Amino acid sequence: MSLLVVGSVAFDAIETPFGKTDKIVGGAATYISLSASYFTNDINLVAVVGDDFPQEDIQEFKKRGVNTDGLQIKAGQKSFFWSGKYHNDMNSRDTLVTELNVLGDFDPVIPGTYQGADFLMLGNLSPKVQQTVIERLHRKPKLIVMDTMNFWMEIAMADLCKTISMVDVLTINDEEARQLSGEYSLVKAAAKIRSMGPHTLIIKKGEHGALLFGDKEIFFAPALPLEDVFDPTGAGDTFAGGFIGYLAKTGDISFENMKRAIMYGSAMASYCVEKFGTQRLKELSQSAIFDRLQQFRTLTTYDIESKQD
Ligand code: AMP
Question: For residue 8, what pLDDT is reported?
């Protein structure tokens, strides 16, 4: 089924305890599309870059079945730039620079051929732009998934709440869930956020996995314990790409299938962090993804008596 992806396509500069990069290609929609491309080749991208963005990276999208007709290239302007620094605890990071550049006045144009999308993934972007995308679709997709971050809570809370009220699934990290809801307990935070609109909420907890909150159930997906995490940048987006990619492939949006989808998302994210930027994500194979899912199964399956003595 067709998947529409919206989000930043960007340059990032990253510093981790393992090293430092100059400007490399990143952005929420980049990670989402690359990750989802292992599950479906019916992906339509809506984003904006400046004419400083490398042509070869646009070709890379195309090679992977990502339609770039909706990628605007602004002559004489600069692409979005983000820079972040991780400390030894890679669960937290400092944002050093956010230069919106072309994202500052991004007007998302949806090509006619993109209309009728079955799945919509709203990657991290201004909530106003995310909202405009929903409004510009002639038919409501089967499922709308949205990601966001604290940056937008600080500068655009009212817009953010409005956009959240229009989506089916929200993915955010634990600190952001607390900030958004004003609740420390993640169970209370989830109840509050779900009352704002989304019927399903995913709270990402970095190396401690992810929680999926539905109507009556909660499901937990661990993260794979890895010896070395080189660069967590994009792990959340890669997770979202695996999640929605798997849903788009199967077409099933039941809670049971979302449980499987977050395992696929977790497997993709576990690969993403093994190298800097999008590098690892570009060199995967179906069998590598399959193997990692089996590792997750081994990690979490156990036998226990079903009757009490
Ligand atoms: P993640 O590590 O999954 O939270 O995503 C990191 C990616 O998000 C980087 O590649 C950045 O380019 C992108 N990013 C960071 N801040 C923003 C922002 N305010 N709006 C859109 N994208 C962003």
Answer: 97
